[in-house]
Structures are given as C-alpha cells and as structure tokens.
Design a protein that fits this description.
The structure is a single chain. This protein has 37 helices and 23 strands. The chain is α/β, with parallel strands linked by helices. Among the domains are: 213 residues, 5'-nuclease (Rossmann fold), CATH 3.40.50.1010; 173 residues, Nucleotidyltransferase, domain 5; 141 residues, Taq DNA Polymerase, Chain T, domain 4 (Up-down Bundle); 62 residues. The strands form six sheets. It has a six-stranded mixed β-sheet with strand order 6-9-8-7-10-11. Strands 3-2-1-4-5 form a five-stranded parallel β-sheet. β18 and β19 form a beta hairpin. The protein starts with a strand and ends in a 7-residue tail after the last strand. About 5% of the residues have low confidence. It is an enzyme of class 2 (transferase).
C-alpha cells in the first residue's frame, strides 16, 4: 500500500531561494520572472520526486506576530524584502491558484506555526507529511510521520535519525536547543556562552530548559569545560532562556478554518495559466503543457483528470474538430485577445465539444510546425459555425467574445448559455451561504431539464472549458428560472452585444465647448466664494468646508456622516441656501465640478477615434433589481433634472440623413402595481387619457378638478412613487419638506383611495416572510435577505425591498422582452435601416433612416406596448429629433 503524502511548502523560503538563483530573468516588458520560473520548477520537481497526494503552500504574514510582541528585536536585523521580489509575489500566487494548489497565509500568524498546525492535523488523518524548507526551527516537528525536505534536494530527506545526528538532540527538543544557543537568523539571543555542544550535553542530562532550571544546582556537577561560568550565565539569563524558547517553539494549535479543504486538489484554470505563462514568457512550461509533460498537471492532477486530453489545433486536427462540432451542434468556447504597447498581440481560443477533450490554439510568434496556423486562418475556418445560430455556444461573458470576434469580421450568433449571467441569477434567487451542494444534487436528480441537458452538463462538468466552475449554479438556475433565463436573459446577450458594437454617435466639439464653458463658470464661482468668505480654502474638502460653514459662519447643522462628522452634502447645502447666499454658490460650484469630472471628462475620453461613437458596456448582472446598468461610460446617469445637465444630451446625435427616436414607457411602475394589486381605482385612473398624477392629486388633497394646481400634481407624483416603495411618514415629510402629520395625512388619503394596493403590499410582505423570497410576473424567484431579521432597520429595509424588487424586475423584463422582439425583427427584415443604440431606465433609443421614421415609429410603439399583457395597457410615448435633448413628440399615423 502506497503512503499518502502531503507536502507543506515554505513559500517564503521558495521566494528567497529562487530570487537569488534566477535574479536576471525578465520578460520583454522588463518584469522580473525569476521567482515565477524557479518556484514552478521546484513544485514540479517535488511532484516528480515524491508523488504527493496533496500540496499546500504556506506564506508568512507581512503583519507582526506574537513573537514581535514578546521581543521587539525579533528579526529586526533582517533587510527589507527587495522590491523586485515583492512585485513577483502577487502573480506567483495567481499562478499557484491557476495550478489548483491551495495557498494559505493567516494574518498575524507566522508560516512556521501554520506548517506546525497543518502537520499535526494531517498526521492525525494518517498522512505522511514532508516539509519543504531549510528553516532549522521546523526540525522540531520531525517525527515518525513528519520529515524535512532540504532545499537543495541533494541530501536525503531529514528524519528523526538525521536530526539527532546533526544537532545531538532529538527533534522534539530542538526548541529547547535553540532556546539555549540562540538563533542569529531570527535575532534570538539564547544564553550567552552556550554553544551547540554544550546545549546538546545539557539536554541529554536534563530533557528541557524547564528541567534544567528545576535542577540548576546540579548543573555545576556536569563534566563540561568551564561549567562554573556556564552555570552562572544560566542563572543570570533565566528570562532570556525562556524567552528564546518561546520564540523558537512552534505553535501547533493554530485555528485553521476549513482544514479539510487543504487536503483537496482545487480546479486548474489552464486558460488563465497559459495566459500568465505567455505574458511572463515562461515558454518552457507552455511547451511542457502542450506535450503533457508538466508534472503539476500530469501527475498531481492525474487521478482527478485521468481522461483529459488537451489537443493543439493545427492543420492536422482542425478539420476533425470542425466535423465534431457539426455533428454535436453545441460547444463551449473561450477566447482572449489583446495588443500590448509594442503592438504584439496575444490570442487564444479554447473549444470543448465532448467529454474530457479541450481543443486549444494559442498564437505564438515562433514559426514552427506546431504554430503554423494564425488567428485569422483558424477563425476563417470557424466563421460559418460561429455565425450560424443553429450551432449553440456556451461560455463565460459571451458578450466579450462577440466583440473580440467582431475584430476578425465575425458576428457571433447562437448564444445558448452564459455562465456569468447564470451565476448572477443564481445568487439573486438564493441565500448562497445556506445552499449545500449535496442537497442540491438530490433535488436536481428529481427534475427534468431541457433537451440538450446531457451535452451541456457533460461539457460543463467534465471538460476543460470556461464553465466548469459554475456547474452547481447553472443546474440550479435551469431548475428554478427556466423560462425567463432561456427566453429573456440569454437572447438579451445578442441584443446588448449589437447595441454596444453600434454605439451612439457623439459630437466631440459640443462636449469640449461645454467643458470650457463650465471651467470658466467654475472659476467665477470660486472667486465669488473666496470674496464672500475673505479667505482661500479647498472648496472640495469637506473638512475645510465644515470649518467655513459651521465655525466661521456658525450655520446650524442637522445631519452627520456615517463617521460622525458634520455633513456638507447636497441636502445640507440646499437647506442652508435658504438662509445665506454662500451655500447656494458652493452648491452651484459643486454641481458644475461633478458635471465636468463625472460626465464630461469621461464622455470625451470614451469616444472611439475611428467610429466617433461611444460604445458603452451594458451589464445584465450587476443590480439587485434586474435592471441593466452601463459602464465605460455610465450612460444610465446622464443628468436630466438640471438645465446644464440636459445640455450634455445635445452632443448625442444621429448620423446624416438619420434621426434619433426615443420610446419611453409611461408610468410603467404604477401600471405594474395596478396589475399586481388589481386595484380598481388605480386601474381606472391609469385607463383614462388624463395624467395619473393629476387623478392621484384629487384623492390625496381631497379637492375638485378646478382647484388642482401644478404643485398638487408634483406632490402627488412624489407620493405615488414613494408610497409604492414603502416610504414612512417621516421619510415623506423629509422628501416633501412638510410636517410629519401632513405626510401621514397624504398616506392615509392615498390608501383610502387605493385600498387594494395596501392589501397587496401586506400580502407580499407576509409571503416573503414565510418563503424568504418573492416571485415576479415572469416567474423569477428573488431571495429577500433580512426579511426575518431581529434588527428592526434591516427588517424594514427588507420589507421595502420586497415590493421594489418585484416592480423593478418586472419593468426590466418588460423592456428586455421588447428589445429582444424588436432586435429580432430588425435583424431579419431591416438590418440596414434601424438600430437600437441605447437603453436608459424605461426608455429605448433608436437610430433610424429619416425616410423610414413613420414606419418604424409605429412598429416600435406597437411591439413595446404589446410585448407583455397587463390588466392595464402599457403606453409608450414616442419622440424624434436630430439629438437626444431636442426631441419632439411624434404623432403616429398607421403606415400603409
């Protein structure tokens, strides 16, 4: 029976050992790579030599430990870590993670103590432990099941006999031995005058330091040269002796969380690993992986991945791979592509079709037999498959893959499953902490999946592809959100990919002109502020602003930040503006500054120099409400409330002989609430042609039509949306700046009219309380954290979230459904006449050929209003214009 071996690697020892051995190694970018090369070499050699079942790599903490507290001179003589060494630690840890090897470091705990604790735990589990290190402190851990592998690999493994032969004491007394002799490498003092031989003799006669001091009067009788002086030194330095012992003694009882996880091999991430190897030019290891001669993968992971084949895509095998894809019609794909500063590009593609087989192509500058294909050639051969929607593609972040392929004139279609989206909806509908894999599997086995389940699950679970690690999440999602995931979330990827690629045309000159104007206005406001205050200070600094407002001017303060400081936020400045002109000017200055830094700068920087367009990135997986968000730049928060903010939209234009069209869902959230609650008065008010907020104003203020003013309507609008999301009397009073009793009256009148809404809110809360989730119109289950919390604040927030998430998610799904339907029609019938270019909240923005505006206005309105059927009809308002700000309402006529 073969021994179960675990190797514990002293990570910091490896760092210094390889740093000096491969000091001159660098890649083309000038990054040092010696530690990366050397450490991997060590790991491979350890695996080849010892064939371990497990490996764990342990690193020291950069923080102080209990030893530093015991003795402030502990290790103080050591030189700081060289910067070139320090820079390589982070990429090394990422590479180790990609290799599937566990890494451990614990804050304020020394690596020696972690190694000691792990060795104790593992030997109890009947493992033989080998420690790779040259640290003599660790020899105290040696026993029948623990040995030391010396760093040079030349001498034999150090066992109990070797330790005794080398030090003259048994391994279990090494801490006492070093406590007496001291250890210059760690700046441990020991007892002056006691060397290795003397310490060995003392410990042969008295087994430990404690035993020596118990028998101190007998020490003088030992046959040791200069024994009187030694005895005297022992008596004088008793504290030093015990301190030194404590400093050298390894703590084997450190608490290590999830200890069993370090006995498991983690999943390897070969795409990421090869990416690092490529960047750091570790070509030897790339070659070894290709040739199945890389010990970490071939021996260490052998049992787990016994049937895995990595096939290099070249002229000999590409036809075979394509034939298999044509046969199966479903495959997973991963692609990466980037160009560095030297204009040399990195490219890889990975495709998995069948169990345990991954087809790899990595672009390499070398021109040898294995790399005769170029990215252009391989993609040209795959083009008909990638562009054919009948071939189903699975992957992670397929939208990114869509954009990479566009660079090679390929439009990816047939997007079938995206694990990043699956993971998001899995997290949204689950309390992940309580989800157990075993119970999940039992539940899954009882359910039926859609047709291609076997192929998908085999590809996901067993082959080296980009979705293996999300297996659990994917299975859960298929069970619980089959309909919206399959009909909305996945098709939407294609829509968003096309939107991002099309982008929105921007007139850069307009933005630059606005930026210049804002700069000039900001400077004038700055001068005004300094003139009023009669001193210069940093207006952008909350601390300095506090001094001016609350110390110099003694303005009243009524709000504090989370840290307990006096707040100077927008609400505070708005209130203070009522009593003095200074806060008003500061507020104007701050708005302009934000407009310039948050919006103008980023918009200008984001304009693509070739297309003259902004190509934002839309995210399906970043909000708790299911709403889309965007970044680089964020188009969802382009200001609309302020006049100067609205001016930004002038720069968003249509190309020549085209127009912009905006289609906006009117009062969609109120319509959704009317549908869910089936409130007759709300349905009635929304069915009429007049404004819902006008009708609500009559009920809230209890007045007739002829007495309603604009402020009544504006108040009713705020009340409508605030009450919808569970605002309190106090919250409404703050929002409307009215007394609490008045706010309470508004809420009371509101619910006297819309009684069923109150009942629906109560029902939803009770349902969530019982089930711990809510369900939307489209069948989404959304987990509600803290719904049964004992913390009142958390519980109230959860109650509000119940309604918010149902309405927001439903509104989001309605607009997503419309986008999918319209995109499908546009692509099939009118690919060159109309494009969806933006999605902002409840609004879709299109770019349309001018002569086709009538036709598409009708088509867009019709499909948006009929994509989802509610009790209350959906209403979409249409506006058109040459830019996003100057849009005019468009009266539709039914096209012939």
């Amino acid at each position: 029976m073969t021994k179960k071996i675990t190797i514990l690697i002293d990570g910091n020892y490896c760092l210094y050992q390889t740093y000096f051995s491969y000091l001159k190694l660098k890649n083309k970018n000038g990054d040092s790579t010696g530690i990366l090369y050397g450490c991997i070499k060590i790991f491979n050699k350890l695996i080849e030599t010892f064939n371990p079942k497990n490996i764990v790599i342990i690193f020291d903490t950069p923080k102080t430990t209990f030893r530093h507290q015991l003795y402030n001179k502990y290790k103080t003589h050591r030189k700081p870590m060289p910067s070139n060494l320090k820079k390589q630690i982070r990429p090394l840890k990422k590479i180790i993670q990609s290799l599937g090897i566990p890494v451990i470091n614990i804050k304020n705990v020394e690596a020696d103590d972690i190694i000691g604790s792990l060795s104790k735990k593992f030997t109890k589990k009947k493992y033989y432990v080998f420690i790779y290190s040259a640290d003599k402190d660790l020899t105290q851990l040696v026993n029948k099941k623990v040995s030391i592998i010396p760093g040079n690999f030349i001498t034999e493994v150090l066992n109990e006999k070797h330790v005794y032969k080398k030090y003259g004491v048994h391994a279990k007394y090494i801490a006492d031995f070093l406590g007496l002799t001291g250890d210059s490498s760690d700046n441990i003092p020991g007892v002056p005058g006691i060397g290795k031989k003397t310490a060995a003799v003392l410990l042969k006669n008295f087994s430990s330091i404690s035993d020596i001091y118990k028998n101190i009067n007998y020490v003088a009788y030992l046959p040791i040269r200069n024994i009187k002086n030694i005895t005297s030194s022992l008596k004088k330095n008793k504290k030093k002796a015990f301190l030194s012992y404590r400093l050298t003694k390894i703590d084997q009882n450190i608490y290590i969380k999830n200890i069993s996880s370090y006995l498991k091999k983690n999943n390897t991430d070969i795409p990421l690993l090869l990416k690092y190897f490529k960047y750091y030019q570790l070509n030897k290891y790339i070659k070894q992986i290709y040739e199945n001669q890389f010990p970490i993968l071939d021996k260490y992971h052998k049992k787990k991945n016994k049937n895995i084949q990595i096939k290099i895509v070249n002229t000999d095998v590409i036809s075979k791979m394509i034939n298999i894809i044509i046969q199966k019609k479903i495959f997973s794909i991963a692609i990466d592509f980037y160009i560095n500063k030297e204009k040399k590009f990195f490219f890889y593609i990975s495709i998995s079709v069948t169990n345990y087989t991954t087809w790899w192509y990595i672009h390499d500058q070398k021109k040898n037999n294995k790399y005769i294909l170029t990215p252009n050639i391989i993609l040209k051969k795959l083009k008909f498959i990638l562009e054919n929607e009948n071939y189903h593609k699975i992957g992670t972040n397929l939208k990114k893959i869509f954009h990479i392929l566009k660079k090679f004139d390929i439009t990816l279609t047939g997007i079938y499953f995206d694990t990043s989206i699956a993971l998001y909806y899995y997290q949204l509908s689950n309390n992940i902490k309580k989800c157990k894999k075993k119970t999940l599997k039992k539940y899954i086995n009882k359910k039926k999946f859609f047709d291609s389940k076997k192929i998908i699950f085999n590809v996901i679970q067993k082959s080296l592809n980009p979705i293996k690690k999300y297996f659990q999440n994917i299975k859960y999602l298929i069970i619980n959100s089959k309909k919206p995931f399959k009909s909305i979330d996945i098709p939407l990827i294609q829509v968003l990919s096309n939107m991002e690629y099309t982008g929105v045309l921007i007139k850069k000159k307009i933005l630059e002109k606005q930026k210049k104007k804002i700069n000039n206005t900001s400077l004038k406001l700055e001068k005004k502020i300094y003139y009023i205050t009669q001193e210069k200070f940093n207006i952008n600094s909350p601390k300095q602003l506090q001094k001016i407002l609350f110390k110099k001017y003694n303005f009243p303060y009524f709000k504090k930040t989370k840290n307990g400081n006096i707040s100077t936020d927008e609400t505070v400045l708005t209130e203070l503006s009522k009593i003095h002109k200074l806060p008003k000017i500061i507020l104007q200055y701050r708005i302009l500054k934000k407009l310039k830094n948050t919006y103008l700068k980023k918009l200008i920087q984001s304009i693509n120099t070739k297309t003259k367009r902004i190509h934002t990135t839309y995210h399906q997986n970043s909000t708790s409400t299911g709403r889309l968000s965007s970044s680089d730049p964020n188009l969802q928060n382009i200001p609309i409330k302020t006049k100067i903010g609205r001016k930004l939209r002038i720069a968003f234009v249509a190309k020549k002989k085209w127009l912009l069209l905006t289609a906006d869902y009117s009062h969609i959230e109120l319509r959704i609430m009317a549908h869910y609650s089936n409130d007759k008065n709300m349905i009635k008010d929304l069915s009429y042609t007049q404004d819902i907020h006008y009708n609500s104003a009559k009920h809230i203020f209890n007045i007739n039509d002829n007495k309603i003013k604009s402020y009544h309507r504006n108040t009713a609008k705020i009340v409508n949306f605030s009450i919808l999301y569970g605002i309190s009397s106090f919250g409404l009073s703050r929002k409307l700046n009215i007394p609490i009793y008045e706010a309470r009256e508004y809420i009371k009148n509101y619910f006297l009219t819309y009684k069923t809404i109150k009942e629906y809110i109560k029902y939803t809360y009770n349902f969530a309380k019982k089930k711990k989730y809510v369900k939307t119109l489209f069948g989404r289950k959304i987990y509600i954290p803290n719904i049964n919390s004992k913390n009142k604040k958390l519980k109230n927030n959860a109650k509000r979230f119940c309604i918010n998430v149902i309405i927001q998610n439903t509104a989001s799904d309605i607009i997503k459904t419309s986008m999918i339907k319209l995109q499908h029609i546009f692509q099939k019938k009118y690919p060159n006449d109309v494009k969806i270019i933006m999605q902002i909240h409840d609004e879709l923005i299109f770019e349309i050929k001018e002569e086709k505006i009538s036709k598409f206005s009708y088509l867009i309105k019709y499909h948006m209003e009929n994509s989802t059927k509610l009790i209350v009809p959906l209403y979409v308002s249409i506006k058109i214009g040459k830019n996003w700000k100057e849009m005019k309402s468009y009266i539709l006529s039914v096209p012939k």
